[in-house]
Task: structure prediction
Amino acid sequence: MDTQATSVLNRIIRRIPNKNIENLLKKWSCLSADQLRALDYTRPKWMIVEHVISFCEENRLNLKHITTLEMIYHIENPDQGTWHACQLAEAQDDAVCVELTQFKEQFKAHLHGVIRHISIKMKKHEDEAIWIRIAWGDNFSKPNHLKPTYVVHHLHTSYVFISNLMAKHKIFLCPALVIATKHGSIKDGHLSTRSLTAMRDLPLRRYQQVFPNAHSRIPQERNTLSSHPCIGKEHGDHEEMRHQMSCEAFGHSPSPKLETAVYRLETRYRGKGNQTLSDRKEFFRGVVRFSSSSLLDSLRHCVASGMAEGPVTPLLSAITQRGRNYFVITDKGPGVSSQASAQRP
Amino acid sequence: QIFFLLFFWLGVFLFIMEGRGSAVNTPASRPLTRRSKSYGRSCVEAPSYFWQTPGHLTVLKVPTSRGAAKSQLITNKVDPEHIALLVKNEWKLSYVTPLHHFRHTQLKSYSRHLAAFIAAEKQQGVAVEVGLEAGFKVTFTAVLGLAETDEDAETVFIQIQSKPAFAAAADAPKVVWRGWLTCVNGDPEYLRSLPSDFVSLPLFCTSGSESLTTLVKTWLERAFDCNFGSLALNSTTLNWLAALWTGCHPTCNIRHLKLAWSLPTQPPLDVSYTVNPQDAWELWNSIHPEESTDDKIDIKEVQSFINGLETHFFRHFKIYLSAGTLVKVSTALGSAHLDGKIKIGNSDYITTLLTLLTESALLKMPT
Result:
């Protein structure tokens, strides 16, 4: 096995806790049952790595097999690194008919056509997601397997999720995706998170959404043990309404685990009482960043508890409605209303 | 004995009376014994059978107005090498009560004693530092020039370096801990009221491992009969810093005004608002014009500034930032965190920051 293969293997095994290594190697099914039994996972990592390397050499495994292992690792642990969403646009008429084999062929053919040295691996996961691993080289040097790009796409949806893509490779990847999916263009989805699951669930609406409904109300998860028959809640209606509003805007728990939302504000100053500043034509520029271990849960609690005033402003509900977490907010025009609109730059 | 009781109850009565009158201006976070308006010295002089630190019955004022931040080429007053020690590090803040029999002339002797103390504690098994250090070298330096008024004592800087066991002669010892005691523009009445054998250096800034900080504090407590406590900043101080630093923008590019709030949602939500420096300055200037002849900035103007930013935020996001806490303020001139952590970015405005912090330290000291 060459040095690249051993480096990649080393990195994978170092990343995962010892107790998970066995499962990963089993899924890989490149080592025999005896070899798997012989590995002692209580040993220090460097020992385990050495053992695995020696078994790989015994079995005459090469870089190809190691990259398969890396892919399996990423598929099993998708919530690592930072994922960015891109959105395909201008679907052609036969975009819905694109089959998996067709997609694979077109994608590989395009990339092989523009770069001499490139290594592409594709795998279809059970949840219908296509995982693509790309190790980039160029016309002169071999592919670098230590910095692969990962792409995840669900066929027939308009979203593509990308991790670890360098700017210089973007110009190759984007046309390949556009051609293979039979669309006209691709653009930035303005959504980035660490969790691929959240990234997929949000724009594809795979979470418990709540729709405005005059009749049914979402039951609150409050414990009603504290209520006494003689105690009436003065603001019970208001609380229910706020709770309903918050769920409509941000979905019901559990929500996709977003961590941040960033708003670039380029609107006129709207602080109170300050005439000289409010008359200014220039914008009051700033950047607002919301962060939390689970942003949607925090925002929902904010609205439900009254820390945010209802109705929920479109700036915040746009996170779920439009499936993005980066916005540039500008005033609509000279006749500006009190609410600014969220615009795609 | 009757006279004693009489005076005692008279004093208590006066305390209660003064407290009621100034309830409006007292910040909510302060304990009730503090007042925002000084009604002069309390009538009861400090007899020796009261247990407080001498001089403490003088009422400390919380200023409702202060001068604008003035830039000064601090390097004219202070050795640039000393300045370099203070800038760019993150410091954890504590307050310390006045030091008894502290002499700026005895710094070398203090260095030796502290080094010996640390070595002795380490031998006793107190965990100090992981490694093969043979010993520690302690240096006390006087940083002259930071003190502003005649009552301020000169700043003292303490540095601890480790000497590895098998070091070659050429190996530079590694600095493992730094700290400094300072007093900048301390309340002159209070400082004058201290007995002559006490030195007040109420602000203590430390950077390094917790275990070493505790050791240094223990030694100082034993040597100078003083008490330490952690100094958390309050949002009024942070508001002042936001306004004062923004006001410096014309003379020194602050690069940005970044305010960070924490909202008590589940899970907690952090909101950070980074304002363009020119726009922040224009907002500040519209509240407190630069050309105004009165050099004093009033707390109401500061509150108006922060409210303006919070309202602009509210108009967009409909979230009440006042439901949360302002946790951190930062500009290119420095940053200050509610937990009592600061960073000094630019030495030109260091006096402003240290004045505010000295004041906070003096106010936080226990009665």
Remarks:
- Chain A touches chain B at residues 263, 265, 267, 269-272, 274, 276-277, 280, 282-295, 297-299, 301-302, 305, 307-310, 312-313, 315-316, 329, 338, 340 (CB under 8 Å).
- Confidence is low (pLDDT under 50) at residues 333-345 of chain A.
- The longest helix of chain A spans residues 100-114.
- DSSP finds twelve helices and ten strands in chain A.
